[in-house]
Amino acid sequence: MPGLPGGLLSQLPDSPPLGRWATRATGVGFMVAAYLLCLPWDLRNRPETPGALDESSPVTGLGIAGLTVAMLSLAAYFGFRDRLIWALLIVAGPPATLMYVSFDGHPEPDAAVWPLAWGFFVLVMGTGVLAVAGFARLFRTSEA
């Protein structure tokens, strides 16, 4: 779009490779930071009482809402500027990976449940990202 500094809304596939990859890397970095800020890890992962399956968790509803807003905003941005597969990888990939690492660090009593929870959350994140990115593509002036 003319008039925007640095072509902030120009199509990424048409931009020079260095700028394209720098923008994508910045998006990944932003998603990692948003995940770690909104869903902080309690590395002590401990039961609240001896023998309990429930662990303490620093995750709050506000944190989940913040991560959702960050993901949907970035999905719209990359959906408008880039291909759908890149929007999916840049926006949903880092949270899915960090969530896997977090769930994999849990002790054995809940080890049978976390793969299902992870799969469900990744499916929800991916579907949301693709829906918002696809909707944002409707506002492009040219197809890339």
Which features would summarize this protein structure in a list?
144 residues, mainly alpha, 0% strand
Describe the protein.
With 144 residues, the chain is mainly alpha-helical. The chain has helices at 17-38, 61-81, 84-91, 93-104, 114-137. The protein contains 5 helices and no strands. Helix 1 (17-38) packs across helix 4 and helix 3 (84-91) crosses helix 5. Mean pLDDT is 81; it is low at 1-6.
In N-to-C order, the SSE pattern is HHHHH
Q: Beta-strand level of the residues, as a percent range?
A: under 5%
For the CA atoms, what is the radius of gyration?
Answer: 18 Å
Bulk shape: elongated
Determine the N-to-C terminus distance. 14 Å
Mean pLDDT over the full residue set: 81
User: Low-confidence parts, pLDDT < 50 over ≥5 residues?
Assistant: 1-6
Q: Please tally the β strands and state the result.
A: 0
SSE-based structural type: mainly alpha
Helix content: 55-70%
Put simply, the count of helices is 5
Largest beta-sheet details: none
